[in-house]
Amino acid sequence: MRIDIISIFPDYFAPLQLSLIGKAIEDGLLDVHVHDLRDWTHDRHRTVDDTPYGGGAGMVMKPEPWGEALDALLNSYGPVDDGHRPVLLMPSPSGRLFTQDLAIELADEPQIAFVCGRYEGIDHRVVEWARQRFDVTEVSLGDYVLNGGEVAALAIIESVVRLIPGVIGNPLSLVEESHSAATDHLLEYPVFTKPASWRGFDVPEVLLSGHHGRIAQWRHEQSVEITSQRRPDLLS
Ligand code: JCQ
Question: Which residue lies with its CA nearest to atom 5 of ligand 1?
Answer without folding.
Answer: 121
